[in-house]
Each structure stands twice: as C-alpha cells, then as structure tokens.
Amino acid sequence: MKKSHWLLIAGVSIFALFPLVTNDQYLMHIAILILYYALVSQAWNLLSGYSGQFSFGHAAFFGIGAYTSSILLTQFQVTPWLGLVIGFVIASLMGLFIGFLAFRYKLRGAYFALGTLAFAEILRIIVQNTEFFNKTMGILIPLEANPAMFQFGSRTGYYYTILILTALVFLLVYKISRSRLGYNLIAIRENEEAAQSLGVNTYKNKMIAIALSAGLTAIGGTFYAQYLLFIEPPTTFGNDVSINILLPAIIGGAGTVLGPLVGSMIIVPLGEITSHFFGNLAGANLMVYGLILVLVILYLPEGIVGWFQNRIRKVKAARSQSKGFKNKKGVGLVETARSK
C-alpha cells in the first residue's frame, strides 16, 4: 500500500475517533461544519483548482441538491438518501448544460466566473418566485429521528455521515489527480492552447470536470438541508454560499487534495470566533474572510498546502544538487589520484 493511502487511512481514523474524545455538542457541530465545508470546497476545487475554470456560482449546484432532496421528502415522502443521488444527477446535468454553453463558446477567466454567477442568480430568482418551491418561505423539513430518512437522534450520526461522504469525495479527487484526467485538467489549467495542440480534448475533459464538480456540490447541499432541517433561496442559492464554498480551497491551496480541508479547518473556527466577538456587527465574518483572502493572495498565492509543497520541492532539489556536486567531487578526486 502506498504512503499516501496510509496517510488517508490515518487521517480518517483520527476524525473517526473524535466523537469518542469529547461529548461537547458545540465542538461536534464545529467538526461537522469543517467536514461539510471541506466536502463542498473540494467539489469546487475539482473544477476550479485543477482545471483552472474559476466558478463563482457553485451555489446553483448546492441549491439544486438541497431543494431536490427536500422537495422529494416533504411532498413525495422519498428518503433523502435517494434524494441525494437524484440531486447529484440533476446537478450534474445542469453542470453539463452550463459547461456546454460556456465551453462551446470558449468562455474563460472572468467571463466564465460571471457566467456561473449569472446562472446561480437565475436559479435563485426562479425558486423564490415559484409556488412549487414555496417561494421565499422556504421549506421546513419535519423532524423524524430515523437514519433511513437521513435524520439522527444526535449530532454523532450526522458527524459520521459527513465524515464518510467527505472521505469518499477526497478519495475520488485524489484518484482523479493521479489519473490521466487529472493530468489533462492540470495541463488545461496551465496552458489550454498548448494542451490542445498536444492532443488533449479540452472540451471533453472540462465537461467531465464540471459535471463531477456540480454533482459533488449537490451532495453537500443535501447534507446541509437534512442537517439544518430548513432551507430558503438566499441560504442555498445566494452569492455568499458560493463564496463560502470557494474560500477554503483558495486559502488551503487550490489544485491540491488537502487544500480544502486545511482551509476549512481555518475558516470555520475563525468564523465562529468572529461571530462570538462581533456578533452584533453584520457581515463581520465576511470582512474577516476578505482580509484573509487578500493576505493569502498577496503572500501565499498558491495557498497554505501549495506553499508547503513548493518548500518541500525546493529542499529536495537542493539536496539532490548537493548530492550530485559531492559525487562529481568524489569522482574528480579519484581520477586525480589515479593520474598520480
């Protein structure tokens, strides 16, 4: 078994033991939020971090997941576990539709970001003005402590659920990052024209990335709805939802597997601290997030994990150069001794 696999197993094991260490429900809630934001940010990272297609409208996919499972439960008595799968499919199809329009007409950079933002806003307006979605009143999910209906008697059940979902998403992204698809996405991110000239089907690879990214984000939306038991258009399709999704990956390191988790472990506790001390100041957490984002862009543009990876590469390169220099010096001494 590879070293990376052992690290993944060790990380999951540590998180799995957390409920056995503490019974504090508030700490359990914080841990759930960390894993939840790590999941949705990793989904965003697959499209925007690896392929470089910066999305500012992932709230569209998040809201689809939340509303699909909630409507199926409240109106058709369909278990949210099945709603999760259906939400994944619908969000993936929506991602393909957006990708078709955007990639077909070669929208990139700021234009692609604005395009995704526009779709999220369109969906928000449609939902909050449609009777079927209960308009601006939102959807209140009835409480029924039944694991078969994605509801648990304590936060421990939610914790292990989001832990398993997050671990599976991280494993998937890790596998993709080591596959041909992952290498193609990185090549597209670095230079799309050069990748295309080398035979990479950029359109196909970007379509796969946006479909997977959209579906995985919808999984986070389903969990959000069943955990809080209430959803409404602003909290599922709003711009702040998209910001909260992308922040952990950018701060932790976009285009890295561990970046979203590291960023989430910073963002979530910081948000709670800000809410505690500046709860009366509206938008205080967003101001703090903005300040952190500016600092990261200025001093750690590759993110925290990216910075560490670059440092490790430089150290290894310096060691290999030093070793090569010593070997050459040794060979020179031997040749000098032979000539004498």
UniProtKB/TrEMBL annotation:
Instruction: Give the UniProt keywords, A-Z.
Output: Cell membrane, Membrane, Transmembrane, Transmembrane helix
Pfam families named among the record's database cross-references = BPD_transp_2 (PF02653)
Annotated membrane-spanning segments are: 5-21, 27-47, 59-76, 82-103, 110-127, 157-174, 207-225, 245-270, 277-300
Q: Name one GO cellular component term.
A: plasma membrane
Q: Which GO terms describe its molecular function?
A: branched-chain amino acid transmembrane transporter activity
Coiled-coil spans are none
Report what the protein is called: Branched-chain amino acid ABC transporter permease
- Location of the protein in the cell: Cell membrane
**Keyword Transmembrane helix carried by entry:** yes
Return the InterPro entries for the record.
Answer: ABC_transp_permease, LivM-like
Membrane topology type: Multi-pass membrane protein
